[in-house]
Amino acid sequence: MKIHKRFRFHPTYAIIALIIFVIEVLIALYVKDQFIRPYIGDVLVVILIYCFLKSFFDTPTVATAIAVLIFAFLIEGLQYFQYVKLLGLEKSTFANIVMGNYFAWEDIISYTAGILIVIIVEKVDLRSLKTS
């Protein structure tokens, strides 16, 4: 019964997730630099996942943000063990782009920065709503 209370569609988060998704696709297709693609793309991907989840679930900000961060760390950890290759998908460009194919500490830092941005923006937004 409690799950029904937590499930709801929130169009603002859905729109933000869609915009970030389009930005991520554009970065993947057209940006070939050493900063935006590797760092900003990783900052944005955790924000994208967070907004996607918040589009459908009414969950606490910090708990959702931490769950997304743990998920990102898990995927990065799996990259250390070359799980794309273990799954037999190493020749798939799509799998390599979406799932990643190498571990980098910089990614961990980028994911953390993205989640900190989420928490800060959510907290500032909540405070401004309370004073209105």
Tell me what you see in this structure.
- The protein is mainly α and 132 residues long.
- The protein has one domain.
- It is built from seven helices and no strands.
- It has helices at residues 2-6, 11-30, 36-56, 61-80, 83-86, 93-99, 105-131.
- The radius of gyration is 16 Å and the shape is globular.
- 17% of the residues are buried.
What is the compact description of this entry?
The chain has 132 residues and is mostly helical. Helix content is 79%, strand content 0%. The mean pLDDT is 89.
Annotation keywords:
132 residues, mainly alpha, 7 helices, 79% helix
Show unreliable segments: none
**What's the tally of helices?**
7
Strand content of the residues, in percent?
Answer: under 5%
SSE topology string: HHHHHHH
- Count of separate structural domains: 1
Largest sheet: none
Query: How far do the termini sit from each other?
Result: 33 Å
The chain-level structural class is: mainly alpha
Portion of residues within helices = over 70%
Radius of gyration: 16 Å
Shape: globular
In round numbers, the mean pLDDT is: 89
Number of strands: 0
